[in-house]
Amino acid sequence: MNSIFDYVFFHFQRLYHLPSPLEVSYGLDGRSRVQITPTSSAFLEGQQPHPGALVWKDWRGTTIPLFFDENIDRPWFTQDNQGQVIVHFDVVASAFYLLSGWQEFYSTERDEFNRFPYRASVQNLHGFITKPIVNYYLEILREAVSLAYGQEIKPRLWSGRPFATCLTHDIDYCQSAWKVAGKPALQQGNLQLFFRLAQQKLTGQDAWFNFSQVAQELQHLNAKGTFFFLPETDTYEGHPNADYDVSDPRIQKEVKRLAAAGHEIGVHGSHGTGSNPRQLQTEREKLPLPVSGNRFHYLRFDPVKTPAVLEELGFAYDSTLGFPEHYGFRNSYCHPFRLFNFKDRRMSPVWELPLNLMDVTLNHPKYLQLPPQEVLPAITPMLEEIIKFHGTFTLLWHNENFSPYGLKGGLQMFREITGFLQERQTGFFTAGEVIFQVR
Asked: Which of 38, 99, 263, 427 could form a disulfide with 258 if both were Cys (CB 3.0 to 4.6 A apart)?
């Protein structure tokens, strides 16, 4: 149980300006200023993916789930005559269960890409994918500490900004607009569009070779982005990787130009690299400069094997963990967090920057299929949660969706989302900058 408490407490300490020394015990020791009542459940000693029945309890107008408690009639915490505060619910065990990815590690449910599917998650089963439940647990603990120490506990901010935004761009395709958009144009008899796209391709300026356009959009926001380049061109089990060669001098030039302008470069690990450290390292070395961050193609994160791969290769962070099927909080947390090593029962040194929204999620035939005008209203409640907890919003917008030949209305949606964030006074940071601030 010590590893469980240490893991949760580590993240709690990074959210708030806390008293030092801080007396918090996981157990009723009769001495500490804050004492958390541990669960009597043996669930975390086993290997089942999901606990049994959960209960729901109100916290300041929001009903949140508890996985290892039964009697909800008690108050969240009480203070005795000596000033000690007793937390009556095991928010530590519930926080650990969600944040560590326990359900993914022990579940056998996988989709066609060996990903843990949204349909099998407790977030889907109980309808809280857009609520960062772990943040609520830690907020309750913050209130208990505030009461015990008789002082306000203030949140840590982002260089003075109330919340952070990471604008990230996976570079899968930059040579295929002429084919993807040109073929339908030809079939529909739109020869003018077909020949324009073909001419762009022949002159080396495919409509998706648009790094300058993406950089210009970021410049309008006074933001720096994180670009994940995909270094593999061969298909994998019939699935496509990049349509470009990252070693091509033109691509290398663009990578260096983006980096010189202050943008961050990361590697976009190809199909299968989540369980193949040698291949991932080979791809990483194809980039013209050192990189410390990764996101896997198709968000292919193997809950059992991938954390060890990232740790073995010394990555500072990964930013894969979001459900492709739905926006929200895959680990029910709106801040960066450290991965957990279940094999050794310890916290991994690798940070995870949660992915909250991917453009493909909005229009893929298997996903949400939201009309453009419904996107911002749909995601606003999620964004409000991030703002409330001074968290981080990570957006993935592929370069092709800045063009007219990708996601319908893609550029306008990107502008609407980032405009909303600007109005709420976000700070724009690269993924690496965010990780540096929380380390």
From this structure: 263
Rounded Cα gap, residues 24 and 145, in angstroms? 8
Using one digit for the tens of pLDDT, what is the confidence trace for 293-343?
999 999 999 999 999 999 999 999 999 999 999 999 999 999 999 999 999
Phi and psi (nearest 5°) for 164? -110, 150
Which residue(s) pair with 19 in the sheet? none
**Both tokens of residue 174?**
């930059």
CATH of domain 164-174+210-438: 3.20.20.370
Domain ranges of the chain: 2-149, 164-174+210-438
Each residue's pLDDT tens digit, 217-226: 999 999 999 9
